[in-house]
Amino acid sequence: MDSLTAVDSLIIQQRKEWGEILIGFETKNKYAIFNAAGQQLYYAAEIGGNFLVRIFLKAWRPFQIAVVNPNNEMVLTLKSPFRFYFRELDVLNTSGQSLGRIKRRFTLLRRRYTAEDAQGNELLELFGPILHPWTFEIRRNEQLLGKITKKWSGLLKEGFTDADNFGVNFPSDWPNEAKAVLLGAVFLIDFVHFENKND
Q: pLDDT tens digit string along 46-92?
């Protein structure tokens, strides 16, 4: 996680396989993670899981994502159990210890999540304004500190796949653990709000 030190933004690009694009069968999600200069910091891939679960539960499925560095060394594990609405995601270090958790909260019209530290204390709120469906503001005590934004990836990619690109920005002096939890939030947001939306 040392690669996150002094970083104030990340770009997360979902990778799709041609079989999924042409046939439409849901395969395991894969992502490349870059810094603002375009240097690849990590690679993330959905691991485990069952083909039938992916087919029938689609975005509702439980999932686990391994995040590795360019040397293929594990840096994080992200785990999301099955939940019908109140989705959660745990961010774990290489020893399996919690760095924090993202939780979806109940709202009638808006999209709201909380980011917690390893002790369950609320660090941040992720808030999706109604008129900006591709944006989640990162807030603490109503103060805007950063954003998670789904990026337009081009007509062909948007029209024929459910591949998504995201940008996340935050203060560069935040602890790496908080940045890792926000990185985890991107994957949960992708599953909950953008996975399979082009079917």
A: 998 877 787 778 888 999 999 999 999 999 999 999 988 899 999 99
Q: How confident is the model at residue 22 (pLDDT cuts 50, 70, 90)?
A: very low
How far the first Cα of the chain sits from its last, in Å, is 35
Angle at 187 between CA 53 and CA 89, to 5 degrees: 75
Domain ranges of the chain: 2-99+152-194
Q: Tell me the C-alpha distance between 52 and 61, whole Å.
A: 10
**pLDDT tens readout for residues 3-15:** 999 999 999 999 8
Residue 3 makes CB contacts below 8 A (sequence gap 6+) with 35, 41, 42, 69
Distance CA 74, CA 14 (A): 19
Cβ count near 95 (within 10 Å): 5
